[in-house]
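A student in our group prepared the protein record below, which I am reviewing. What it holds is a sequence and that sequence's fold in token form. My question to you is simply how this chain folds and whether the tokens agree. Do not assume that whoever made the record got everything right. I have pasted the whole thing underneath without changing anything:
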Amino acid sequence: MRSVIPPPLAQLIEAIAALPGVGPRTAERYAYFLLKADPAKSTQLASALTLLHAKIKYCPKTFALIDSSQTVSSLYLDPKRDKKLVAVVADPFDIMAIEKTGTFNGTYHVLGGLVSPIEGVDPDQLRIKELIKRVDEDKVSELILATNASVEGESTTLLIAQKLNKRKIKITRLARGLPVGLDLEYADQITLTRALEGRQKI
């Protein structure tokens, strides 16, 4: 069946299908869309993909994504930001989620993932050593562990807390609770546990 598809189109389908969450049929639809669309769209996409690795790098201090022309993240260099308050996140895009709230004036540290033995991610693959070094260098007073409320997120949080237990530093984590409108019967165990722990006086 593949023989009826021209090789360039087959190669594009294969490349798109390699993306996470994209099945063969979806890859075929995306590829066919690009084939039918204005060639300028394909050129724009190809250009963006080419620049992806050439123009983006990780900040050596926070490990957030930055433009290749920068030396350090602009959020870290901002004098209005409190370098002694650090939100620890799993991935760079988690920073965007927190920034959208407009309420956080600290800086960030990107771990590069979460501890997950099933997926072959062990603590040494995360930027925990760099975090500890930064805690000492910037005299960090509080770490906010902003990881997901999952088994991996909880394991990573516990590990970081253990690594820093001898330092005089306040370690907090994002409040966990029940989303508005969610029935108790549909809440998972971790969510319910955190909701109980974070209960408030009425």
